[in-house]
Amino acid sequence: MSYVGSTLSNLIHQTAFFNLTWGNYLMIAVACFFLYLAIRHQYEPLLLVPIAFGMLLVNIYPDIILSSEVANNGQGGLLYYFYELDELAIRPSLICLGVGAQTDFGPLIANPISFLLGAAAQLGIFVAYLLAIVFGFNGKAAAAISIIGGADGPTSIFLAGKLGQTNLMGPIAVAAYSYMSLVPIIQPPIMKLFTTDKERKIKMTQLRPVTKLEKILFPVIITVVVVLILPSTAPLIGMLMLGNLFRECGVVKQLTETASNALMYIVVILLGTSVGASTSAEAFLKADTLKIVALGLLAFGFGTMGGVLLGKLMCVLTHGKINPLIGSAGVSAVPMAARVSQKVGSEYDPTNFLLMHAMGPNVAGVIGTAVAAGVFMAIYGVK
């Protein structure tokens, strides 16, 4: 009987119940809430489902992301090896390849003024950078945190790795991807706050047709210009534009389909679960993490505001030809932010179609966030 008793005792003590802290239970509750938002309300489920499930796994079984250096047998946890690809900046670049292959840059080419709206939406990045320094973070940490304001998860991870801020990569990545997923909740109140009913109802004229030659030349020219000025952006801008060239050149259909579908979704699964797994209670529930989450939200808000306010100025200068709502799409959450511009506009006039107009600033925001990351790498001498 003693043998049976000790065996049962050992089995019971091997369960997670004896190892979980209140923090783990809190993070499990947060993970379930994220799953609810993703499944019930469909808030970017492609991102939020794997992130939430990774969060759930690591807070029940922390060793799933245990590094090989710490493990007794020298073998790390499954998601540790997934996470290593983030630190090496491999997955962020592959995500950019897929985004480029999925995205039509035509609206940006047809309306180059969209570049200005995308640039204005980077306001959040630089505001967050200054605030992070005020909050006590060093320059490199502040730069890595600030990119959350661009609503660009891959670039946030890429810059954190390049600046040597791997200890902050988990909170930064979770904040960036969470805010990307919650775009439909965060942006509309800010958009409505800074616009009038009359401005929201403005109908924009149809964009001009863009030739195939323009679409082929665009990724090549952008790559040459941006990478010559900021060589350190090559992994992000290069992959983004390569994916778009696959799409537009018309001679590599198989590569386009692979980059925009199979490869893209494989990378999203690996990235989402590993990002979620970086949120163990021990690593996540810290004062610095709460600061990062707060700074990310402020950055996102200021980015949305910057785009909308420049949109209002353009509306005045063009005598009412530009709807300020499209400025909010200047954050680089593609195509989520553009859809939100369309949704808010259609609430006030169901016949108003802003989606394609908003895609211009949206694509410009992707480029702008990568450029902002390149500027920070140049400031801190990182190649």
Label this structure with key terms.
20 helices; 383 residues; mainly alpha
Compute the number of helices. 20
Series of secondary-structure elements, N-terminal to C-terminal: HHHHHHHHHHHHHHHHHHHH
What form results from the Cα inertia axes?
A: globular
> Compute the gyration radius: what is it?
22 Å
- Beta-strand residue fraction: under 5%
Task: Assign the structural class, choosing from mainly alpha, mainly beta, alpha/beta, alpha+beta, or little secondary structure.
Answer: mainly alpha
User: What portion of residues is helical?
Assistant: over 70%
> What's the assembly state of these chains?
single chain
Mean pLDDT, rounded to whole units? 88
Main β sheet profile: none
* Number of strand elements: 0
Distance between the termini: 66 Å
Poorly predicted runs of 5 or more residues: none
Structural write-up:
The relative contact order is 0.18. The chain is 72% helix and 0% strand. The longest helix is centred in the last third of the chain and has 31 residues, at 287-317. The radius of gyration is 22 Å and the shape is globular. It is built from 20 helices and no strands. The protein is an all-alpha fold. α3 (45-60) runs parallel beside α16.
